[in-house]
Amino acid sequence: HRVTVFEQAQTVGGKLGRFARDGFLFDTGPSLFTLPQVAAELVDLDLVRLDPVVRHRFADGSTIDTTEDFASALGPDAAEDWQRLWKRAQRVWETSWRHVLTSTVDSPLRIATLAWRLPDLAAIAPGRTLRGIGRRHLRDSRLRMLLDRYATYAGADPRRAPAALLAIPYAELHYGGWYLRGGLGTLADALLARCRDLGVRIELGAPVTAIGTAGSAVSGVRLADGAFVAADLVVSNADALQVYRDLLPTPRRAAPLRERCLGGFVL
Predict the structure, then answer these.
(1) What sign has the CA pseudo-torsion 110, 33, 147, 173?
(2) Across the chain, how many H-helices and E-strands are there?
(3) pTM of this prediction?
(4) More confident residue, 63 or 259
């Protein structure tokens, strides 16, 4: 494939923002890197494992440093509760990895095959919330609050977020939390260099204002400067609501997408 990336910003990386001052670089976006094995398939990264991953401070003055066996420091009851929840989280992670993260989503039938594995379906607890799972399995209020964080740090409400979010603490604590030496912005640098080595053309400061169509197929993209670039395929990583409402000539398809998919807001 001959690939061109049209990036509306003047730099690559999206949320992997950086602020430079007096010879120092500061990450302004994510500060924790997980699942390094995924990126390792593409680029070489200078990784530093974090131990603990996160330190939680509670109003009663207590602290919890999250490592894989951290609950043992809270007493036998808390440790027993967390181990029970941890086994469930492992099942949710394995189900997510098998059916979602490493599977192609090329037809509704492909998604529907999940229903044929009843143990997997039971593990992800459809209709249950992360808060509900925590209240059912955890007696220690601090552990419940810690579990809620895996919804709130992504901008979700644990009272509405699905129980399947158990996959996140499992991946973070089982595979480790990592820092990239030089900051997480180096991931964007590495991916940019990899793309250029493969012949990908990167156009910065080039907002796309429309996706052209011919019948039921795409024909290319129109840029903010008025230029039209023909293409056989168009891949958009913009918010789905923006794609269907603003970029494609089918705004009625945006009607079911009532809420924007805001990945994170950093102040």
Answers:
(1) positive
(2) 9, 11
(3) 0.77
(4) 63
